[in-house]
Amino acid sequence: MASSDLQGLYQELIMDHSRAPHGYGLRPAVAAQSHQLNPTCGDEITLQVHAAPDGTIEAIAWEGHGCAISQASASLFAELVEGLPVADVEHRIEVFREAMRSRGKIEPDPELLGDAAALGGVSKYVARVKCAMLAWVAAEDALRKLA
């Protein structure tokens, strides 16, 4: 597949997730929650982490508003981590952060990040990295509150 075809597929995936987000809608029972704001552009998110008794992530629930990248990133994150142990989620957050900070030098690992690897191209645009990271930072904060 040509690079431009792949880029088009990734753009479509991001638009699909921003239009029909996975995990959208907060729940009344809150295990751990974090609200994050990107002061640069005004994107914001409130994200809840719901853990099962065995320590796996039962669900990610979130609400927010902002650009397609921030909304798709939250949806992709929610889809990726449900059913994973907390330690695995924390590892994926760190791997995603490294890729986002790389300015395009590190390709996100689709084996580890699933469809969220489609956000890899965002790392080339410093102003957009915070948009892509918003939900991941909120999750990281909420996971600290679970402990």
Automatic annotation (TrEMBL):
GO molecular function: iron ion binding; iron-sulfur cluster binding
Domain called NIF system FeS cluster assembly NifU N-terminal: residue spans: 10-131
Pfam assignment, any one: NifU_N
Gene3D superfamilies xref list: 3.90.1010.10
Recorded superkingdom: Bacteria
Gene Ontology BP terms: iron-sulfur cluster assembly
UniProt-listed CDD domains: IscU_like
Annotated NCBIfam families: SUF_scaf_2
Protein's name in the database: SUF system NifU family Fe-S cluster assembly protein
Organism: Microbacterium bovistercoris
